[in-house]
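ugh ok so i messed up the first submission bc i forgot one of the chains. this is the corrected input, ALL of the components this time, i swear. 274 residues overall. if the numbers dont match what u have on ur side tell me asap before i send this to the collaborators (the ones from the other lab, u know who)
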Amino acid sequence: MDNIYLPRETRIQSIIDETHDAKTFTLSFVDQDYNRAFSFKPGQFVEASIFGIGEAPFGISSNPNRKDSFDITVRVVGKVTEAMHQLSVNDTLGIRAPLGNSFPIEESKGFDILIVAGGIGLPPLKSLIEPMLDNRNEYGKFTILYGARTALDRIHRHDLQKWGERGDVEVLQTVDHKDGNWDGHVGVVTTLFEKIDIDSQNTVAFTCGPPVMIRFVILDLLSMGFPEDRIISTLERYMKCGVGKCGHCAIGHKYVCTDGPVFSYKQIKRLPEK
Ligand SMILES: Cc1cc2nc3c(=O)[nH]c(=O)nc-3n(C[C@H](O)[C@H](O)[C@H](O)COP(=O)(O)OP(=O)(O)OC[C@H]3O[C@@H](n4cnc5c(N)ncnc54)[C@H](O)[C@@H]3O)c2cc1C
Ligand code: FES
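and heres the new structure output, hopefully the right one now
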């Protein structure tokens, strides 16, 4: 049996500078048989490690239908993420994956889809948006709302533009503070709700972003009449093992690493306040 704590070596295939403090790494497992067999579901995450520095969790940001490689998008905040940003193409990175549960993509078929993302919350949702758009006719109206601190802090800018140009997806973006040439909307992401027409009884909403954003998004969705089990969010907690053994990520009787990171509001509201 595989050792669940043992990272597997991946090689960095490419690196994209998303913003001044965020990069997307495309990774492939060095063991080619393992690489060919590797698969994941939208919303699952990895534990990425650098020998001698440490290990940290990141949502997978690429389309699960893409084979041979996968992406993680990493914002610098501390020692592991700083060390990752020093890496170059062809360097190696330890990965344990796939971890955690996933977004309910099958259960959302037939519904309108509302995606509400903030900052570095877009990458995990991108692993859901792309396979849904591969099968666009299986979903109703498709709306993506994205908020970032400034225009230059927007992650996956080219993907947002590409999705908006399809004609069958409404993409609205906003920034907290205007900078550079930004002539779009200014205000927190929830101010975009005024601009869209949503049938709350026939829509599944997915949200990921800073905890304060998620809190206000959920409050607004509830006031719009969304059923509690059709508001889907991710929770972020400090993690160590990532596999339900150490208890670091526990909220009450739930482990965010194995019961989550994806939860419906119906499940979240039963958890103790933290
Ligand atoms: C399931 C999951 C998915 C994630 N997906 C992504 C992703 O796609 N992209 C991304 O950039 N980040 C993501 N994160 C956050 C990422 O794991 C942390 O930024 C990372 O662990 C920081 O490691 P570090 O060693 O660089 O920072 P450290 O040196 O450990 O800490 C630096 C600072 O960040 C704070 N911090 C560290 N971890 C967390 C955390 N989990 N929650 C709140 N504050 C924290 C610390 O308190 C400290 O202030 C995710 C976290 C989880 C749990
Ligand atoms: S991180 Fe160890 S139990 Fe979740």
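quick check: The mean pLDDT is 95. that seems consistent at least. The chain has two domains: 8-99, 112-234.
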